[in-house]
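Input record (one chain):
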Amino acid sequence: MEGLKVSDANLVVYVHPSKSTKVPQAVLRELSSLLFKFSESFNGVVLAYDFQIQDRIAKILPGFNPYFGVRLKAKLLLFAPKPNMLLEGKVVKLTQTSIHVVVLGFSSAIISDEDIRDEFNYRIKHGDEQFASRSHNRHVIKVGAVIRFLVKSFDEEILHISGSLVPANTGSIRWLARHLEDFSLTDRSPRKRGESEGELVIQEQAYSLNNDNQIKKSKRHRISEES
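The corresponding structure, as predicted from the sequence alone:
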């Protein structure tokens, strides 16, 4: 899946004097506060980290509470989706006009009716809502399915993605894995749903970085594998 990257960073973490005997724990606490939030400094959502303390000597800041700065060399796993990237997520809700997806267990995405290609037809079968392909009977998108979609935009503040199923290489991961060779990966111009014929539109995994400082995440932030 696109949108994931590893970034190296040199950081300084300021620690309260009362934590001077437990510096590694204090550093972990500070770095954990960055998780699952968009960081402008790193231009992405921090998913995991690995770090090494660079120096045993820390610089003490002047003031009533003389915090001291601990220099770190960190490796960060970032989620940074950009327009036209391909992401994968689990379908959690379907309506006649939209598909709702969760990516990596924490970021929500929506694919509106206008961004679902004309090939897919909404229907209710055995009480289940689904989008089924008119061209391929076994290509079905329903709640619980993992799909690949194209990023249109990403709201960094609320971590919300607007997606598209217009390209031919998007849809159910299970179906694509078996039939993707039949399509060109560069073909991103099928018709959207409802467009007239002839009109074309151009267009829960838990990550860890192994070292001595293992990261513990709460159950609320655990990510199931989707890719």
